[in-house]
Amino acid sequence: MSTTAPAAPTAALDAARTTATAARVLRQLRHDPRTIALMILVPCLMLILLRYVFDGSPRTFDNIGASLLGIFPLITMFLVTSIATLRERTSGTLERLLAMPLGKADLIAGYALAFGAVAIVQSALATGLAVWLLGLDVTGSPWLLLLVALLDALLGTALGLFVSAFAASEFQAVQFMPAVIFPQLLLCGLFTPRSDMHPALTAVSDVLPMSYAVDGMNQVLHHSDMTATFVRDVLIVAGCALLVLALGAATLRRRTS
Amino acid sequence: MNYLPGQPSEPLTTSPAPAVHADDLTVVRGPRTVLHHLGFTVPRGQITGLLGPSGCGKSTLMRAVVGTQAKVTGTLDVLGRPAGHPTLRSRIGYVTQAASVYDDLTVRQNLEYFAAVLDPGRAAAERRHEHVTRAIADVDLTSHADALAGNLSGGQRNRVSLAVALLGTPELLVLDEPTVGLDPVLRRDLWNLFHDIAATRGATLLVSSHVMDEAERCHRLLLMREGDVLADESPEALRSRTGTDTVEAAFLRLVDEATAAHRTEAPTRHTQEPTR
């Protein structure tokens, strides 16, 4: 005879618990103004820096700037989420929450909602700054840039949540950034077009989600309307984010040994 | 809401299931068997003390009762349901040994969040506010309600964690060493609170401790050592059965007897390492 309880019904999302979780995550952030300032300001400062690094070649700034508008939210949200959920795991609050009537989906959606809201602010500021003050030359609508940036942030949140399950300490969690993000950064087409890489690397970059994030940004940069490629890129990034979120949910265990 | 005196949670005509019933309960963690074929019953509406030295399996047993422990075999029914059943999640309050609260939230914000998880929705806002205020008062932290949990002392943080478990209407409170690191006055106050909760709210408390003098304050005792239950009775019965004056002396006598028995029965039996 076993006492293992029947598998908990993966309850559909409970809106009230999800928003309560999102509000709690934002409240935690509000007690940490320095983190907020770093999350919001660092991308803007990097863009300003880049603008004057490429002072003599505005075309290069257009390309790299647009790509970075997609990459910044991904990296920031990855770091913040992986540390935040790791803390939740190590402080015992995760165990406490999972012993309470909180669905795993509520918790994950709550985190995604809260960091998504931060990502909107961050991306809006960075995009606005780049387009209107730094003269980033975008053919398409800046709103589409914002959409891609937001999806990238969601992808970063998802990846952060997922890897936090494999980190035993904050040291390890931070080290996951070079492990998970840097290869994508090198292969996403930021430094050199993906088609110019060794065929093996091109193939690898074809399956990395950041490639599509950067590609989507470049589509907006060069085309005035929504191209089929742009739609494909957006769908791939969104699909990856949802897939990784689901994987992240699977790492939350009510029973641990 | 609270259970009022004389208003038990179930009709008196049907005798309610015990708070916890275990039979042949075994828990394995990694290569080690932490709990060996335990059998015991925790009656409702009383304070049951779970006592034993560090590493004897108290925390593992509590985690099994709450439903967060993996690799549990045998029978373990809690409030009439198998441990870990989803419907139990709002009926059990659980406090881990280390305070599990958010250090970057105030005491009140911590409680407001957990209250919203237990009792969600805008319609319940007023009730939640009452519960939060009462729980903060229960653990005597009203004057610190707006302090960040991370800025509190260890004992105060533990009390925030306890307040979270008091939210809502827990029929069973599982408290893992709730009085560790508290001064004698606070310890007395908390034990008075536990008795008050059992008497006026009709709740069952399962409280672990490795301080034997706290055993005298329990209605019933479960004495544990190395994953086995040595005794399951009231403090008075335990003292008279062993012919000792204190629970501590009774425990030591039982340990000596058990050690002697093991030495003669199973000399190769390996000893258990600390569990948490």
From TrEMBL, chain A:
GO terms for molecular function: ABC-type transporter activity. Keywords: Antibiotic resistance, Cell membrane, Membrane, Transmembrane, Transmembrane helix, Transport. Signal peptide: none annotated. It is a multi-pass membrane protein. Pfam families: ABC2_membrane. Its main location: membrane. Residues 30-255 form the ABC transmembrane type-2 domain. The chain crosses the membrane at residues 36-54, 66-86, 107-131, 143-166, 173-192, 234-252. GO terms for cellular component: ATP-binding cassette (ABC) transporter complex. It is found in: Cell membrane. GO terms for biological process: response to antibiotic. Belongs to the ABC-2 integral membrane protein family. PANTHER family: MEMBRANE COMPONENT OF ABC TRANSPORTER YHHJ-RELATED, TRANSPORT PERMEASE PROTEIN. This is Transport permease protein.
